[in-house]
Write a structure and sequence with these properties.
The chain starts with a strand and ends in a 7-residue tail after the last helix. The protein has a single domain, classed as Stationary-phase Survival Protein Sure Homolog, Chain: A, CATH 3.40.1210. 25% of the residues lie in helices and 30% in strands. Helix 5 links the parallel strand 6 and strand 7. By secondary structure, the chain is of the alpha/beta class. The strands form two sheets. The chain has a nine-stranded mixed sheet with strand order 3-4-2-1-5-6-7-11-8, with helices on both faces. It has a two-stranded antiparallel ribbon with strand order 9-10.
Amino acid sequence: MQILLTNDDGVQAPGLLALAKSISNLAQVRVVAPNKNWSASGHVKTMHRPLRVWQTQLADGTPVLTTDGAPSDCVALGLLGLIEEPIDLVISGINPHANIGHDLTYSSTVMAALEAVIAGIPGIAFSLDSPYNHDAPLDYAPSAKIAEIIIQQLTRKESLPQCPLNVNIPYGAIEDMRGVKITRQGTRIYRDALDQRVDPRGECYYWIGGDAPTGVAEPGTDFWALAEGYVSITPLRMDFTADEFIPQLAELDLTLA
C-alpha cells in the first residue's frame, strides 16, 4: 500500500514527523508537504502561478518533498504524477489543534483529505486536541499511535469509505482515553475580536484575535466526544446541499418575467 502524507503546518512540523514514523509500519509513505504554515487557509488550489517542488529532509533524515503550494496542492501534485506510484490513501496531519464543528471550513488539514476524495482516493485528517496556550513541546506519540491503529483497522476492510474522515484525538496518554466514538459534526462557538492598532507611520492595521473557541457539547458530536475523553471520527459529506430547505425555497415566486 502507498500512502501520501501531507499537513498544513509545514514540512518540519513535529506532528508530521511523528505520523510519518508511526504509519511507516503499515505501508510505504511518501511525503509531500508545504514549506510553510498554511493553518486556517481552507481549500486552496493554486492555478495562477507555477508550483515549485524540491527535496528536503525530516528531522530524522527521512527524504521528503516540499512545495510552495498549499496542502491541497500537495495532494493534487502527488496524485497527478509527482509521485509515480499509484496512491492508495492520503493522510493529513497531525494538526496541533482540534478541527471540529465549523473549523472544518477553515482547516487546510481537513481540506487536504477532501482534495483526495475529490480525486477518488480515500482521505483521512488527524488533529490533536492540545491544551490552549500549551507552552511546552507537544507530545505527538500517543496520537500518532492512535492514527496508526485507526489506519490499520480501516485498511483491513475491502474498501475505505469514499468520504473524508475527520479524526480528532484527545491530548494525553492512550490509557487515559475512554475509547473511540463515531460522531457527527458539532457546533463551534467562536469568540473572535477585532484588534485595531496603528503602525509607526500612523496607518491603521488589524488583527483578528479573541479568546479560544468553545463548542456545544451535544451528545454524539465531535466536541462532545473530545470533552468526554474519546477519540472522535467524523465522516464528512461532500454534498453541501441543505435538502430540507429545498421545499421551502421551491414555494417562492421566482418567475423571471
